[in-house]
TrEMBL record:
Domain CdaR GGDEF-like: 244-350
InterPro entries assigned: CdaR-like_regulators (IPR051448), CdaR_GGDEF (IPR041522), PucR_C-HTH_dom (IPR025736), PucR_C-HTH_sf (IPR042070), RsbRD_N_dom (IPR025751)
Superkingdom of the source species: Bacteria
Chain ranges of the RsbT co-antagonist protein RsbRD N-terminal domain: 92-230
Domain PucR C-terminal helix-turn-helix: 398-454
Region described as Disordered: spans on this chain: 30-50
Family: Belongs to the CdaR family.
UniProt protein name: PucR C-terminal helix-turn-helix domain-containing protein
Length: 461
């Protein structure tokens, strides 16, 4: 019996379902021997083909009869491919090239590559309708087209759209051709329609899957080659061994501009492509030009030129995704600035809190960076100024209060607002810290401020 799906595809045969149910086949019911692969002894007959030659075996009960384990050929579709396939497929390339914007805007060679790709499907599609292509493979010209699209940065969605539109166009041509087979019974046309729809869908699904695999393989290969070349060029620039011209010509990055260096990484397991893309998105609205390289599986080193003078200040208010950490060097110009801002961004990495939602900027931690160049001396410095407080049972809470107290310019009110406590409580905690340390705490003391900052970095180690 004809399915609802097939019925919708033959709008001209409005009484098709009724015809299939009520009409008798042109040959009387008879039993046939069941050969290998057949699963029924229902009414079978063979209608004459359009040219009087033997047609395709069919039945009412079996929409896709099989002999010898293989599907029977779908004669009208095979005939259409033989008579019109090359011309129609070639013309389809022009149609898709015009309808899909990404293809139309691509290199002029794209059209002929698309045409070769579409035409190359003729043998495989014909074999599918003949029932002799159980495992179709993507033709070489179609593989070449997928590689070309990947190299040209044409999105995969545009390539898949060409298959979607091509599938629809071919099916429309097939159904139009099938309706013209007036010598065929309605039942026979319905059976061909149903089986043809299934086989074409399976073929296109298989080709689409292989195209996705081919495209992604090409993109991965190109990205590895591009990343490797970019890493070589950036290393050359940093070492003073050239690379400036290549950086501009191959990647569009000018070295004579102002640069802000950065380091980005993830606190969760994540591929470097994902980290790079997240960092690029965060900086997209701030960068006039941008380049980045991969150092290991999840750490990205990058540079960008700020869009305006206030960009560096604006970045202090950026809220990063939960899993991403970002350090920034100071804005600096030229090739020396390219070097210096990179080193500054690197020096901030160990000072970035695990929970910080904002980028760590070098000027904000410069004193701490300088003081931690010798870790052993820095540890002794902290112990000299805060040792008794660090070993006290209430030391963690008191040190946190002192840190906010200093940041609030010794204002109990502002410090209390930050911590969510009463100003009197702030004053009491400061006095208690002084008692434990045995000295007055001067809010203007650079040594005290530095000791509090260094103590925080030691918490992270």
């Amino acid at each position: 019996m004809m399915t609802t799906r097939a019925r919708r595809r033959l709008p001209d045969d409005r009484c098709l379902a009724t015809s299939i149910i009520t009409a008798s086949l042109p040959c009387p019911p008879q039993r046939h021997a069941v050969t290998a692969g057949q699963t029924s002894t229902s009414r079978l007959c063979r209608d004459p083909g359009v040219d009087g030659s033997p047609g395709v075996l069919h039945s009412v009960e079996m929409l896709d009869a099989k002999v010898g384990g293989n599907p029977l050929p779908l004669e009208p579709f095979v005939n259409w491919l033989d008579q019109h396939g090359r011309l129609k497929f070639s013309g389809l390339a022009d149609q898709l090239h015009a309808e899909i914007p990404e293809l139309g805007a691509a290199d002029p060679d794209t059209l002929e590559a698309l045409r070769a790709s579409i035409v190359s499907h003729l043998p495989g599609m014909r074999a599918t309708f003949m029932g002799s292509n159980p495992d179709p493979h993507l033709p070489k010209p179609a593989q070449d087209f997928a590689y070309l699209m990947a190299r040209s940065n044409i999105p995969l969605s545009a390539v898949l759209r060409s298959y979607e539109l091509g599938h629809a166009a071919i099916w429309n041509e097939f159904t139009s051709h099938l309706r013209k087979q007036q010598s065929w019974t309605v039942a026979r046309r319905a059976e061909a329609l149903e089986s043809g729809s299934i086989r074409l869908f399976e073929y296109m699904q298989s080709m689409t899957g292989e195209t996705i695999t081919t495209y992604n393989r090409a993109r991965d290969s190109l990205m590895r080659a591009t990343n490797s070349r970019r890493n070589e060029i950036v290393r050359a620039v940093l070492s003073g061994n050239g690379g400036v011209r290549e950086l501009r010509e191959l990647f569009g990055y000018r070295i004579d501009e102002v640069h802000i260096g950065y380091v980005a990484w993830s606190v969760d397991p994540m591929k470097h492509e994902e980290v790079s893309e997240l960092a690029r998105r965060e900086l997209l609205g701030f960068a006039r030009q941008h380049v980045s390289v991969t150092t290991d599986s999840s750490v990205i080193h990058g540079w960008f030129t700020p869009c305006k003078n206030s960009t560096f200040d604006d970045l202090a208010a950026v809220s990063l995704p939960r899993t991403i950490r970002l350090t920034l060097g100071s804005p600096r110009r030229g090739i020396r600035g390219f070097h210096h801002t990179h080193r500054e961004a690197l020096s901030c990495v160990d000072l970035t809190a695990l929970h910080t939602p904002a980028p760590t900027r070098f000027p904000d931690v410069a004193v701490t960076v300088l003081a931690t160049q010798d870790r052993e001396m820095a540890a002794r410095f902290v112990d000299d100024h805060l040792g008794a407080l660090r070993s006290h049972e209430d030391g963690e809470r008191l040190i946190k209060t002192l840190r906010h107290y200093m940041d609030a310019h010794a204002s109990p009110t502002r410090c209390g607002q930050r911590l969510g406590i009463h100003p009197n409580t702030v004053t009491q905690r400061v006095q208690r810290a002084e008692t434990i340390l045995g000295r007055h705490l001067d809010p203007a003391s650079l040594a005290l401020r530095l000791a509090l900052d260094l103590e925080r970095t030691m918490e992270l180690e």
